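Because showing beats explaining, we think one record worth quoting, sequence and backbone structure tokens together, and here it is:
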Amino acid sequence: MDEEGAARREPVTVAARTGRPVLTPSFGEYPVYTTGSYSVLSSDTLRVAVFEDALRSLAPGAAVLDLGAGGELLWARRAAELGAARSVAVEVMPEAVRQGRATLDALARRAPDVARRVRLVSALSTRVTLPEPADVCVAEVVGSFAGAEGIAAVIADARTRLLKPGAVIVPDRVCSRLAAVETRTVLGGVDAHFDEAARENVHRIFAAVGHPFDVRLRVQSPVAELATTSGVVEVYDLNRDTPDRLVADQDRAVRLLVRREGVIDALMGWLVLRALRGGPELDVLRDPTSWGAVLFPFPSGPVRVKAGDILSVRARTRISDNGVHPDYRFDIALESDSRLTGLGTIRAEHHGKHIGGSPLHQALLA
């Protein structure tokens, strides 16, 4: 168990349920967002409050850059309302851009002074240019597994080209925690399945990538008892790490202590986010937000464990060949009664061709 995990007071059960557990593909990493997807994020009161509290102290008089603004231009607009001298909203999804233009038109009628300080740019953030660098950058390109949406590469590029030296990034720090679980328990005692909406998103991801593969599995509102302690396996200190460190590969080893006898068949990862240095942390397993948890099923299927066993996990993060989104790999082994048994390697690639790597994926993608 890592030092942070040992010192941390961990929940035995997940308390932050906002509804029944729902299994879906993790789609924030892919260009399949709809305006409905963005509205779910903007209606997440806790998520909005965390970012808005940070902006309230940073926006007045500043030049603000909002990366991945969505159709509501939420943070570019809110920054201007909070007194930003100017704000630039960057968005690449065509549907969101169309909605963003309508949002600006409506804002111009309602608050022309605010609208004059907001500019919408239709482009990838890594290809946009600004007339002058920004003081503050809001980057809500944070996945349910922290780095999955490419925030490291996005911020490294912004630091190099789009921001002033010493510019402040919101969020300040994101990390991913990992524990072992039983999938059926995570899903509230029902068998894993995709509903019609989830199946549609799977096909949209396959169409965007160009081929089927083992999609990452996301659980909204998990009702899980963590079978083990947890450990940190991915960290991005966005205001401290230099651009070269942000895109660097990460290797972390954690030892997870089994709490009680039972069955485990997956690792579950979740986001812990701090919007502003010195501020409170948002923990997805404690705080009810639109972020979910991510399941990484064991390649060998269920494993019986007892209290005191140790699950050893070597977690490796590598930037994929698109230069933005990471691939993840977890080598897992069980230490029980002084014997070490390898349980295989979990591969969670952004757009790899690996398919059927676990019994759960075989069943879901049949």
